[in-house]
Structure formats: C-alpha cells, structure tokens
Specification:
The protein is of the alpha/beta class and about 350 residues long. It contains seven helices and 17 strands. The radius of gyration is 22 Å and the shape is globular.
C-alpha cells in the first residue's frame, strides 16, 4: 500500500508542484485548501480563484480534493490577533499566527480523519531526523533566496514527525516553474500571492478601521527627551524603524523608536537610534530541545523575514521569557515580530519567539 499524504493546496505553483512531486514518488496524494476569509482579493492565497486553480490542478493530477472551512477560526486566531496587536503598538506577523494556530494542526486533524500517514506543503524548507538529538529538525531550504524557515519556527515535534516538504531540495524558484512546465501544469507562470491575504494593498491602517470601526486618534511625535516635535496620524500608521511616511518634515532623517499606546505618543530619534543591542522575547518555541530544558546558548538570529543573520547569545530570564544580546546592534527590532534562532552554520532552526521589547 502506498503511503497516503494530505497536502495544503493554495492554487499556486509551489503547492501544485509539491503535490505532483509527491505523486511521482508513489504517494497517494489528497489535496486540501483552507477557506479562510470572505472577500479575499484576487491573487491572494485563499481567494475564490485560487481555490478553483487548486481544484483544477488536483483534477489534472488525478488526486482527491477537499475544501475546509476555517473562516471562523481564522478570524479569531489571526485577524483579531492582527488587529489587537497593531492597536497595542506591536507589529504582528499574521502568516506565523496562521501557521501556528491553524494550518498544520488543521491538516494533521484532516490527515487523521483520512487515515493519512503524512502532511505536506509547498514551503521552502527541509525536515529531517537528527540521530544525535533524537529529534526531528527543521533545516533551511537549498533555495536560499526562497527559504521560509523564519515563518515555520513554531512547528512542534508532533507536526515535524508527520511532515514532508517536497520543495526543500529545489535549487531556486525557476526550477519549480520548469518542473511545472514539464508536467504541463497551468500554474507554471502564475505570479506569487500577496503577503497578507486579508489586507488589500497592504493598507493595514485602513483595514483595521474598516474591520472594527475604530479610529486611531492623532497624537504627538516626541523626541527621546519627551519634547513634542510634531503630530502623528494615529499609532496604527507607524512601526519601529520607520523613516518614510511620517507626514512631517524635520530637515533630517528621523526614525520611529518607540510607540506608546497608553499616552498615544510616537517617539522619534535621529539616525543611529533605530538600532538595538538586545531584545526580550516571549511565546517561545524550541525545536532542537524541549522548552523546559532551555539553557543559555549562542546562535545566529533573524529579527525579520528578510534580515541578515546576526550572532547573539540567548538566555532564559524567567516567566517564559528570553533575553537576546547581539554582538552587533540590530536595526528596527520590532515588538510583535518574530526572532528566529539558527545554529552557527545557519542551517538548522533552533527555535524562536515573539519580540516583546
């Protein structure tokens, strides 16, 4: 009997090729798409057209296909979280929240119902088993420019033990598209989806105001000494490290260094003030060891998806928190974003957490 695998299908080239590769290897493949949000923009990963693209791909591949309705859970665990974080002067990453609370657990549940052995996605990353650690590990993709381990750091041993990532060994995105052309798949040249499926045009502030009817009240820009130096449009319009779009001319570059929802003040600093030598992280998840075994360690860390890895020391400080000290100050360390730790070879994901401050 061939092994059965449930794969998340977005209708894009990555997940479609991943499904095709699994079938080529002899797996019994079942495609699933999660219906997450009403009114999705065309081109997003969960729009109606993407659902139809996924359905057509599964028909062409000759595999079963299911659509799962997770709109209520998505709104509660991702959209509400996104809005609350922004209103609390944090900058969330909804894709990480979606992975953590919905996608992989939901696929595992569906796999159990369908008596499947594995789950799979079109993410660019690799999963393996480390005999020395006696644990499953998450490794960076061969296609370094496409690596997505930053948004997968919250995976658990249970999830990793059942996971297959067929694109992890691909050299680059063009190899994926060439594979799609070889297989005659219609999505070979389909553009990549936008980053956040429920926010049209990346206008977060307008989305939040429409979503819950709240208005972000104008307030004061202040300098590091607390002196008022201008007026801002509402705190949801700003993020740590921001320089452009402040709406006020100061005659010199100024950067957002602090956002205080209690006083409705945004602190600005001159060039250099946007760098930090340390941070505190919460909501920790470690892959290469149990959270309870957390002892100080050296690592490479990324404080944003596109950030370069930076040497650091990570140590527990109690209360489920970790302090991260960097060898060199990092730009725009932003509360709400993830900090993800890698081994010193920048290959294996140690774990990560959410930047608290």
């Amino acid at each position: 009997m061939p092994k059965r695998v449930v794969i998340g299908m977005s209708g894009g080239v990555d997940s479609t090729v991943a499904a095709a590769l699994l079938k080529e290897k002899g797996y019994e493949v079942i495609g699933v798409t999660m219906r997450l949000w009403d009114g999705e923009e065309e081109g997003s990963c969960c729009s109606l057209s993407s659902v139809e693209d996924a359905r057509r791909a599964c028909i062409k591949l000759g595999i079963d296909y299911h659509v799962l309705d997770f709109r209520s859970d998505f709104e509660k665990n991702v959209v509400d979280y996104f809005v609350d974080e922004y209103k609390s002067a944090r900058t969330p990453n909804p894709c990480i929240a979606c992975n953590r609370f919905l996608k992989f657990d939901a696929m595992l549940d569906k796999a159990r119902i369908l008596d499947a052995d594995y789950i799979a996605t079109g993410h660019y990353a690799r999963v393996g088993y480390d005999e020395r650690l006696k644990r499953f590990v998450l490794r960076r993709a061969r296609a370094e420019a496409k690596d997505q381990t930053y948004v997968l750091y919250s995976l658990t041993q249970r999830q990793l033990s059942k996971m297959i990532l067929p694109l992890g060994e691909m050299s680059d995105k063009e190899e994926v598209r060439e594979t799609a052309r070889r297989l005659g798949l219609d999505v070979a040249d389909k553009p990549d989806s936008q980053e956040i499926c429920f926010v049209p045009d990346n206008d977060y502030a307008s989305f939040i105001e429409r979503y819950d009817g709240s208005k972000s009240e104008p307030g004061d820009f202040v300098d590091s000494s607390g002196n008022v130096i201008g007026r801002h449009k509402g705190i949801i319009n700003y993020t740590i490290g921001q320089r452009k779009g402040l709406g006020v001319a100061f005659g010199r570059p100024m950067f957002v260094t602090r956002i205080d929802p209690e006083t409705n003040r945004v602190t600005l600093g001159e060039k250099g003030s946007e760098f930090s030598s340390s941070l505190v992280a919460d909501r920790l998840n470690f892959i290469t060891f149990d959270n309870a075994d957390f002892e100080p360690f050296e690592a490479l860390a990324k404080v944003r998806y596109a950030a370069k890895p930076a040497r650091c020391r990570v140590e527990p400080i109690g209360g489920g928190l970790a302090k991260v000290g960097f060898d060199e100050p990092q730009r725009a360390v932003t509360p709400g974003q993830a900090v993800v730790f890698y081994d010193m070879d920048f290959d294996v994901v140690i774990g990560g957490g959410t930047i608290k401050g």
